[in-house]
Amino acid sequence: MINAVGLHRVYRLRGREVAALRGVDLRVRRGEIYGVVGQSGAGKSTLLRCVNLLERPDRGEVRVDGRNLTELSPTQLRAARRGIGMIHQHFALLSSRTVAGNVAFPLEIAGVPRAERRRRVAELLDLVGLADKAAAHPAQLSGGQKQRVGIARALAPRRKVLLSDEATSALDPATTAAILDLLRDLNRELGLTILLVTHEMDVVKRVCDSVAIMERGSFAEAGRTLDLLRTPGSLLARSLFAPPPDPGPGAVTLTWVDKAGEPLVSQLTRLFDVDVGMVAGALEEVAGHPVGRLTVRIAGERRAEALAHLADNGVLVEEVP
Amino acid sequence: MTGWLDALVERWPDMGPVLWLGTLDTLYMVAWATLVTAALGLPLGVLLVCTDRGGLTPAPAVRALLGAVVNVGRSLPFIVLMVAVLSLTRLLTGTTLGPTAAIVPLSIGAIPFYARLVETALREVGRDVVEAAQAMGARRTVIVAKVLLPEALPGLIAGLVMTVVTLISYSAMAGAIGGGGLGDIAIRYGYQRFDEYYLWATVVLLVLVVQAVQSTGDLLVRRVSHR
Questions:
Q1: Which of B128, B137, B151 is opposite residue A82, by nearest beta carbon?
Q2: pLDDT single digits (tens) B24-47
Q3: Residue ranges in chain B whose pLDDT is less than 50
Q4: Nearest CA distance, A310 vs chain B (angstrom)
């Protein structure tokens, strides 16, 4: 759905050059939620803004739904942008308009007739649970409500793609969860493709089907969330599950997906006569799947066999250096 | 103690009509100058913002030229400006005397003043709101008409109120070179004949007019502000 190849972007700040993007390839599949995560200054916002060309990359091309945006005329680009919704960290609502007026705004831009506008606005406010706030002004709303208006506005012209620029960063944890659930529902019900950038790992854990970890202008790691977790040396796994401070000699880290409740550890002690000592571990739900990551010390003569058994059963086994 | 009040009551039949006409002249000058100023200062302010670096249509040369023109207008003391534009005033109104003639220098003095206030008000509109509109595929004219101006409306009105108050003070100066109005009365009767009754009456009337303008303006700003 979104296909960006070889994106480069350099800013010039007081004579100094800062590379915000250095050769980023981004591929977002139709109907998935793709998260780009990284610290501030990693270039994730620049990347997002390159997707609808609010920011023009110095090099590289951007395709959304098969169209190469980088070679469109200004008029064509405006038309293309009407198919891409965007939500913002600080909501970017018009304070002079009511909630209904804000949601209607992109429809006005798209030239939708008044009667249909009104119908669509009511429908959208219902969808985001704000039907009773249609006549309120943004200043009267809470942060979570403002972001719901932002989402309704972003979806108004029946969009297929939604870009989210740190949409939950200004919200408290409970509101963040509610907004993420809403995005997840919209993704499922409307087949909406969502590209979101965030610095919160929690967002990735909760909703992202695919994820890219961005560091200093390029992707350090990218792929389907669960595949990454099953890959040795995964940065994502290390970010989602804090590594133990001092695991000691002979420790291994075990990572598994969708195996909650399977008697793996008890099998080890029974079949291979090894001792298993827990060092650290956690079970998390990632993108709707239970994922476990456990650091253990395994001792005994048949340690190697035990580890091989785990690997045969789909557990990722990594020796801790 | 009440001597001055008796004197005022006694003189009112003479003073009343003079002051009334003077007030009407002042309102007439200021009202027309305000219309002209709003009509020209608003677009000028919009241009200043749009042509600036990072604006909707960056044009450094145009921006530099407009900025220079505005600065020249802003740096001239009004009393000097009035004299400097006398020939233009004659060209436009056929005379250099009277309230109608005064509209010309008043407008010329106030346009750059208001343009700067418009510029400031428009800059207050968040960059993210403008960007959101761009991301929706809005054309530039739509962004100006439906984002910048409505979002800045409270500031635009507050700026216009400030401009009207400034125009009232300018209009009093216009009296000095025959512009008519309350300033004219203050100078002819109050200064040249040293008639304190006229002097203080014009002071009170000017204060009342300014107060009325300011209160109405504040009320309007509160009505349109939803922050």
A1: B137
A2: 988 999 999 999 999 999 999 999
A3: none
A4: 50
**Taking the mean position of all CA atoms in its chain, how far away is CA A74?**
29
Contacts of B132 in chain A (CB under 8 A): 86, 88, 92
Where does a domain end: A128, A159, A190?
A159
Q: Where are the domains of chain B?
A: 3-224
Q: Are residues A301 and A254 in the same domain?
A: yes
What is the value of pTM for the model shown?
A: 0.84
Q: Which residues of B touch A (CB under 8 A)?
A: 126, 128-129, 131-139, 142, 146-147, 150-151, 153, 224, 226-227
* Domain identity same for A65 and A173: yes
Residues A37 and A63 in one domain: yes
Per-block mean pLDDT, blocks of 10 residues, chain A (321 long): 91 84 92 92 90 91 91 91 91 94 94 93 92 93 92 88 91 89 91 93 91 92 91 88 78 86 83 87 87 89 89 88 72
Which of A78, A95, A163 lies closest to B137 in CB terms? A78
The per-residue pLDDT for B1 is: 54
CB–CB contact A106 B224 (8 Å): no
CATH number at residue A250: 3.30.70.260
Task: Please provide the average confidence, as pLDDT, over all residues in chain B.
Answer: 89
Tell me the DSSP string of chain B.
--HHHHHHHHHHHHHHHHHHHHHHHHHHHHHHHHHHHHHHHHHHHHHHHHTSTTSSS--HHHHHHHHHHHHHHHHS-HHHHHHHTHHHHHHHHS-SSHHHHHHHHHHHHHHHHHHHHHHHHHHTS-HHHHHHHHHTT--HHHIIIIIIHHHHHHHHHHHHHHHHHHHHHHHHHHGGGT--SHHHHIIIIIIIS--HHHHHHHHHHHHHHHHHHHHHHHHHHHHH---
One domain for residues A93 and A62: no
> Which fold does the domain B3-224 belong to in CATH?
MetI-like fold (1.10.3720)
Inside any domain, residue A77: no
Is the Cβ pair B128, A96 closer than 8 Å?
Answer: no
Domain count of the fold of chain A: 3
Measured CB to CB, residues of chain A less than 8 Å from chain B are: 52, 54, 77-82, 84, 86, 88, 90, 92-97, 105-106, 108-110, 137-139, 163
Report CB contact under 8 Å: A110, B137: yes
Query: Which chain B residues are Cβ-neighbours of A105 within 8 angstroms?
Result: 133, 136, 146
Q: Cβ of A84 and B134 within 8 Å?
A: no
Residues A44 and A175 in one domain: yes
Give yes or no: residues A29 and A151 share one domain.
Answer: no
Domain that holds residue A199: 1-72+166-233
Closest chain A residue to B153, measured at CA = A96
For position A6, which CATH number holds?
3.40.50.300
CB proximity list for A305: less than 8 A, separation 6 or greater: A272
- On whether both A281 and A132 belong to a single domain, the answer is no
